[in-house]
Amino acid sequence: MSWNEEAQNVGAPDEPVLSTVSVDLRWDADDRHGRLEGGDERQGNWKAPHAPVCHQELLCGSLTPSRQSVVESDGHGGGQQDGKYHIVYNREVLLVGRVHRDRLLAAAGEDSGVLSLLSLLEVQARSRRTQPQQQSRVKELKAKIEALKVQKQQLEAEIETHQNLQKLRSSLDKQCADEEDVEMEEVSENSQLLRLMARHTQLKDLLHAHHLIGGYDVIKTRQGKGVCVSLATAYEGVYLDTYNLEIDLKPTVKISRHNIPPFIPVNGLAEENDMQVNMRAFLDALSQHLNAFAGRKQQLKLLKEQHKSVEVMESNVLCSILVLMFKVPRAKTAVLCTLDYTDHSRCLPTRVHFECEDKQLSDSDQWKKNHSLLMETPVHKALTAMKNMGDIV
Amino acid sequence: MDDSARRLLQRIMRRIPAQMLKPTLDKWGRLTAAQRQSMDFTESKWALTEKLLAICEENEMTVKHITELEMIHVIENPDHCMWYALQLMDPEEDVHSVELTQFKEQFKSHLRELIRHVSIKIKKHTDEAVWIRIAWGDSFSRPNHLKPTYVVHHLQTPYVFVTSLTSKLKPLLSQALVLSTRYQAIKDASLSGRKLTAIRDLLMRQYQQVFPTKYPSPLAENDQNASNILINKEQAELAASRHQKACEAFGDGMLPQLQSAVYKLETKFRDHTNKTMTEREEAFRCVVKFASTNLLESLRHCASSGIASTPGTSLLSSIPLKGRNYFVITDNSPGPSSQTRQPSN
Fold first, then answer.
1. Any coiled-coil ranges, and where (chain A) (predicted)?
2. Is the pLDDT confidence value at A186 over 80?
3. Which residue has the higher pLDDT, A19 or B267?
């Protein structure tokens, strides 16, 4: 029989049954005493909506003056002492009223003996454990309140700034549309900063819109009969070369000149994507090829800069093949690694192949891991990882 | 060392300028340290040649080794002979997967199939260019090393540059190139010049091209000791726009040093004042040649300084646009009333 059940069963059938009650944690319950000493009168700091009924009242009628001595827990087992008041701060609060041990034992049923004593002890131990928790929990909650107050202040300040920013931004947008002169309402550092921030958000939004429409700079040439498209390339957040295409629109859509290197198949892509009909698809495909090429070229450059111990045996202008020579630290052999980038629209290789005199080396688990590493990460980063693992020098 | 090797070495030594002799020999690396010490580079070329011959005899060098020396020299100084550009057409499916060893094997085997006695040497330069030296023989005679052909090709590009190729041997080389680079045809790119770097940069667009932009970068100020500030102010904008248009047509910064452009005209004579010539039916054939130390630079200057009106004639701006410097111009449309002249391809 669990203690809960015992609590419920204690008392005569006509007495109100004490059940476990869920308690609101907003109690300022740093004083256990307060809860009990009130007895009938509820203490001011006891804000619980459902005040758990004092078991003691139920069972013993009124609070005896001797209850003072029993409020503190003495941490020992039940033994010969009278029942103690314990409040357990959990979701459920078990109120163990002051009950005579005999009464309890009597109420426990026929097998009053070891089992029931053990359960008593268990409850005591449980309640003892929760007491220090009460103190620290209280402190915790207080600290949390402070932190939340600070956060609230911060958020309020941010909201205010944001509102000012919005106002400035809308006035800026209006200014840009009307091209009026800028008027400074207050010449103060704060307002200048706010103006800068407003302009910054404006530019960011513009960039985002530009990115959404495909990100190509297009301007009209030849009095509207042609366009010049700029394709920017970037890798790992660094802008690299920009390529341009001049396209005639009248009488037919065709490319008149460009500065794209000859190994990127511009005309092939134009045919594949039917440039006449779907310019955007063609530009997207071309941009993908160019960015992939720029990425591969940049990887090769970084590899040469960062890993001078790795020898580049072969490369080509399109950066579609890379043959590297690794030196394995402990063994005397070298490993020849071939990276094939047959898909020219990607920065990662499609095939990695190791060649080594020591056949076991290339079949070992370590090098299988290196194989997948080279397939999935850019080559300069993969080599750094391999160096860190000690596979290559 | 046989006679041909000796003659070859003498020829090479004549070609290499005195100051380049030491670095070239060092790069060759076939002389021992002692031998290198014994060469006194302050002596006359003739004396050095004799010394080198003696050393090569000592080392028992063959023609193969001597050709290495020649190749090193030519790669360093490619500007002493005329280069012609060829363009490969109609790529096959696997053109982008051609890699160096495959190309080397294929080229050698194809050329050897076509002509029995041929000596081929292939070397890859640091800038990804593949240099090929070919000495031609025929069914009866050994390869003639005194008249080699040099071929330069960048893999994955459709351009090939060749020197001194007779018309008899051109089809053989073309076939070997086409088969080993996985294209279907090869044609003359109508671009030639002495400076290999110039024609290569022009074809591969390695110079700075200028495109119309919304925000052209501000031009550098001209020197301010011009007399009248007001004139400058008036003319600055015009000058800037002229410069921009000139750069769009020809490029910005350092331009490839093309030295000549040839226009072969096969058009009817048109001049109202000269009735007799205009009445002739057949085309008036003439050749117009522009020559300069740096042709593109001078054309750009013409346009930006206002001597020539901008936008310039498309005939001149076709040079960098199409990457060629030999044009044949014919009348496309029949009849004397037509004023259009189109460069034919």
1. 131-168
2. no
3. B267
Please provide the CATH number assigned to the domain covering A213-294: 3.30.457
Q: Please give the Cα distance from A220 to A226 (Å, whole number).
A: 6
Q: Do A316 and B100 touch (CB under 8 A)?
A: yes
Task: Express the helix, strand and coil content of chain A in percent, nearest 5 each.
Answer: 50, 15, 35
Name chain B contacts of A230, Cβ cutoff 8 Å. 211, 213
C-alpha dist (Å) from residue A329 to A176, A366, A388, A389: 64, 14, 12, 11
Give A103's pLDDT tier (boundaries 50, 70, 90): low
- Confidence at residue A309, expressed as pLDDT on a 0 to 100 scale: 87
Q: B291 and chain A: CB distance < 8 Å anywhere?
A: no
Q: Which residues of A touch B159 (CB under 8 A)?
A: 262
Size of interface A-B (CB pairs under 8 A): 57
Residues B156, B96 contacting (CB under 8 angstroms): yes
| A313 Cα distance to chain centroid | 43
> Phi and psi of A266, rounded to 5°?
-65, -50
Q: Which helix (H) or strand (E) holds B326?
A: strand B326-330
The residues, ordered by sequence, that sit 6+ positions from B20 with a Cβ below 8 Å of its Cβ are B73, B76, B77
Do the Cβ atoms of A315 and B128 come within 8 Å?
A: yes
- State the Cα–Cα distance between residues A352 and A336, nearest whole angstrom: 11
- Cβ-based contacts of B88 with chain A (< 8 Å): none
Q: CA B256, B261, B267, B269 torsion: positive or negative?
A: positive
SS3 content of chain B, % helix, strand, coil (to 5): 45, 20, 35
Rounded to whole angstroms, what are the CA distances from B132 to A46, B66, B72, B149? 98, 15, 12, 8
Q: Does the beta-carbon distance from B205 to A259 stay under 8 Å? A: yes
Residues of A in contact with B125 (CB under 8 A): none
β-bridge partners, A326: A335
Mean pLDDT of A127-152: 86
- Partner residue opposite A320 with nearest CB, options B96, B100, B154: B96
Q: Which residues contact B171 (CB under 8 A, 6 or more apart)?
A: none
Selected residue of B87, B94, B96, B322 to mutate for chain A interface (largest A Cβ count, 10 A): B96
- Its ipTM equals 0.74
User: Å from A318 to nearest chain B CA?
Assistant: 7
Mutate to test the interface with A, among B88, B156, B208, B322 (most CBs of A within 10 A): B156
CB contact under 8 A, B159 and A244: no
Residues A220-269 pLDDT 10s:
877 778 888 888 888 888 888 888 888 888 888 888 888 888 888 888 88
Greater pLDDT, A12 or A192 = A192
C-beta atoms of A316 and B156 within 8 A: yes
Cβ <8 Å between B96 and A344: yes
Q: Which residues contact A94 (CB under 8 A, 6 or more apart)?
A: A3, A4, A7, A20, A86, A88, A123, A127
pTM: predicted TM-score of the whole model, two decimal places: 0.65
**What residues does each domain of chain A span?**
213-294, 307-389
**Residues contacting residue B114 through CB under 8 Å, at least 6 positions apart:** B172, B175, B176
Residues 6 or more apart from B24 whose CB is under 8 A from it?
A: B16, B69, B72, B73, B76
> Among A59-73, A98-112, A182-196, where is mean pLDDT lowest?
A59-73
Contacts 24+ apart (CB under 8 A), B33-41: B35/B59
